């Protein structure tokens, strides 16, 4: 086989792999549940891979028991590390203690009103263009991300939005 033919064969194989992965992700986006989750954004740039937003999702938690720290100087962070399953309820991503399908390690947090929320241990990454201007949330605004829930693995981000006065406004970072 000539070098040109080998090169074309390798190129065709790589193109097939990329297109098949793209088709799989597009299919999941159309058929799998999707919902919104509040997130904490940090570390907006990693020079090796380009620019991205790294988020930890914060969702309502159902069916969990929160464990208080035994002493005031001890953090309850690791006491409340639990496995959660993802479900979408009323368009919002929710962590549940029982279920099947996609799940992740979460840390339970007790909110000011006494409700429990779950913060993901693993980051969700949204890659953005180098020229994108990322607005900082103003007081009273929250950053939210829409995600697809695959059969296995972490939630996959679709878009990011700011929420103010109960209204989600998607950001166009192109």
Total strands: the figure is: 11
- Please tell me how large the radius of gyration is: 20 Å
* Global structural class: alpha+beta
Main sheet specs? 5 strands, mixed, barrel
Q: Could you name the ranges where pLDDT drops below 50 across 5 or more consecutive residues?
A: none
Reading the helices and strands in chain order gives HEEEEEEEEEEE
Average pLDDT: 86
What oligomeric assembly is this protein in? single chain
What form results from the Cα inertia axes? Answer: globular
The N- to C-terminal Cα distance equals 44 Å
* Continuous helix count: 1
Helix content: 10-25%
- What count of structural domains? 2
Strand content: 35-45%
- Kindly report the spatial arrangement of strands forming the biggest sheet: 3-5-4-6-7
Features:
1 helix, 5-stranded mixed beta barrel, 174 residues, alpha+beta, 17% helix, 2 domains
SSE diagram, text form:
Layout: H1 3-31, E1 34-42, E2 45-46, E3 50-62, E4 81-89, E5 92-96, E6 103-110, E7 116-120, E8 124-127, E9 142-148, E10 156-164, E11 167-170
Parallel strand pairs: 3-5
Antiparallel strand pairs: 1-3, 1-9, 2-3, 3-7, 3-8, 4-5, 4-6, 6-7, 9-10, 10-11
């Amino acid at each position: 086989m000539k070098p040109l033919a080998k090169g074309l064969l390798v190129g065709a194989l790589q193109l097939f792999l990329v297109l098949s992965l793209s088709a799989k992700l597009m299919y999941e986006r159309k058929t799998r549940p999707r919902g919104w989750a509040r997130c904490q954004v940090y570390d907006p740039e990693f020079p090796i891979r380009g620019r991205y937003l790294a988020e930890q999702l914060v969702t309502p938690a159902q069916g969990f028991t929160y464990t208080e720290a035994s002493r005031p100087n001890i953090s309850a962070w690791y006491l409340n590390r639990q496995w959660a399953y993802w479900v979408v309820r009323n368009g919002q991503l929710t962590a549940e203690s029982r279920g099947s399908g996609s799940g992740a390690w979460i840390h339970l947090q007790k909110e000011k009103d006494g409700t429990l929320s779950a913060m993901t241990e693993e980051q969700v990454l949204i890659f953005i263009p180098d020229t994108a201007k990322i607005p900082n949330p103003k007081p009273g605004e929250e950053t939210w991300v829409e995600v697809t829930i695959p059969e296995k693995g972490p939630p996959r981000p679709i878009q990011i939005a700011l929420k103010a006065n109960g209204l989600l406004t998607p950001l166009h970072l192109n």
